[in-house]
Amino acid sequence: QCPGIKSLCLDLADWDATEAAVSAAGPFELLVNNAGVAMLQPFLEVSRDALQRSFDVNLHAVLHVSQIVARQMIAQGVPGAIVNVSSQASQRAVRDHAVYCSTKSALDMLSQVMAMELGPHKIRVNTVNPTVVMTDMGRANWSDPQKSAAMISRIPLGKFAEVDDVVNSILFLLSDKSAMTTGTSLMVDGGFLVS
């Protein structure tokens, strides 16, 4: 749908490969950090591999890619916007999500620090924090009707988010319509956090 967009297929946990590929892909004005993993385990069963992989993708990769892109934005001397895809799970505990919740909470705080430090360079940084989104990952983790019913019952709008709900929020945060918005988390949760 967007012929001007070039895709890069990378393992974001590989810092050297990421550095080379992303550095060569610029110049940038906008960035959406959307890569994520959800390796669900009860707290007492969290494995080192799940912990490492989750932080590598959900936090470390965001920091690294954002550094590369922000440096290019600063060098160009043009305003920019970064949107990090977080989760409602950054602010509310969810059973079997100890690692996921932790990575997303860390992402929210990283985004606030980025907003503070990049603001003087006219780079805005925000997060979108959706509820369960009906992506492949969302369906895989929430297809059990008993599990999903408990979560949906806590969402005042009575449903999970669709991809377009998140995309539209991201587009708003990337656009000039949010020119005075930085360091914030935009909840796309159907009211989950108020229930």
From TrEMBL:
PROSITE patterns in alphabetical order: ADH_SHORT (PS00061)
Pfam families: adh_short_C2 (PF13561)
Keywords: NADP, Oxidoreductase
GO terms under biological process: glucose metabolic process; xylulose metabolic process
Keyword NADP: yes
GO MF annotations, alphabetized: carbonyl reductase (NADPH) activity; L-xylulose reductase (NADPH) activity
Similarity section: Belongs to the short-chain dehydrogenases/reductases (SDR) family.
Complex and partners: Homotetramer.
Protein name: DER reductase
